[in-house]
Amino acid sequence: MGNLPWRGTSTWRRRSTLRYPPWRLGKPLLQTLKHPGYPLGSELKGNAMTIAAGFVATDGILLFADTQHTSYCDKTYRRKIISAKVSQAMVHFAIAGDDDYAASAVEDCRESLSAIEIASPSAWEVRKVIRRTIKKVIEDYEKRSLSPDQKPEFIVSVGSYKDGLKLFSSRETAIPPVEDYDFRGSGRTIASYIMHSFGPRVINQTMEGLLPIALHILSAAHKQDPNCGGGAQFVALSQIPALDQSGLLMRASDVCTMDRLGIDAHVREYEYWSGALFSLAVGAAELSDEEFNKRLAVIGERFAEIRADIMRPPSEYMNLVSDIRSIRPRPQVMTDSVMQLGLESPVADQPPQPPSPETPEGSDES
After folding, report:
1. Region 302-319: what's the mean pLDDT?
2. 274 is in which domain, residue-wise?
3. In terms of domains, do 255 and 272 share one?
4. Residue 224: CATH number of its domain
5. Beta carbons of 29 and 6 less than 8 angstroms apart
6. 190 in the same domain as 108
7. 298 lies in a domain?
8. How confident is the model over 132-183, as pLDDT tens digits?
9. Exposure pattern of 98-133 as b/e (b: 16+ CB <10 Å)?
């Protein structure tokens, strides 16, 4: 027992035990990845950006973010995933950047969306309203010559009765669609690095399958980026067909906030044993097959213990898994979901709405 090998003399302590094999190296297996945007000794200026992210899964959309807000003299922890349910659309914002301007943009979007006269707007019509509103806020931000590094950015999920769930990503005044995943805020560099290590096929998974990757990303951002911290927030979204097959109904979990310390401990242990797997087993050419299999068995036991600890109820991880499972597509619960979200089918005798002038390939709202 002792300090973790990659932490040196740090005062940080593990919340769970970590057993080392007898062949453990005397120096760190994993070197800390330094964030180029924040060299040692640099000072934070203004409201520093953090991380907001979204995954497009096979069964819905998973939004996640940290909770840290960094100002000139202190750090606070507040909600960063905000919902806006209006008429026949359900919108969620995951925000990064200047907190005041980002929150103002969300409130302005909620007001603009409430004024939509279309009974059942498409996701692209909702996006058009959001883009115009955010554009005004960004222009006001730039006129005041505020820090360009803290300009608000958003991950936006839109669910409509007409065409279901869509994910968009906001930077400056552009809000392009997201096909698989995207990250915003200062933590996006680290998030992209972690994401690429899993390979291109990782995206074709359910929300539950993508949850460990999201937690790994948040843990790495917390560790490497001084502007990312606090808890981890999640919202899961799914869609179910209406009984008359006339459209799609949206379902959303509550915004779930997790204490990241326990997850960070598991992720760091996973990183250690992943390094051990390659450095002390796979890459050790001098090992006999028998010794290799012994070491592989020890490492496999440790992974099994990490999994058992995470899955042990009533852990926060399993509570979040339960939230995701509760909103999985189930046609038989359509009535309950309509009552919960306040979304009703369009009135039968309403005249059909003309097609939206905007398509996924372009926009004319500038």
Report:
1. 88
2. 263-311
3. no
4. 3.60.20.10
5. yes
6. yes
7. yes
8. 999 999 999 999 988 888 899 999 999 998 889 999 999 888 999 999 999 9
9. bbebbbebbebbbebbeebeeebbbbbbbbbbbbbb
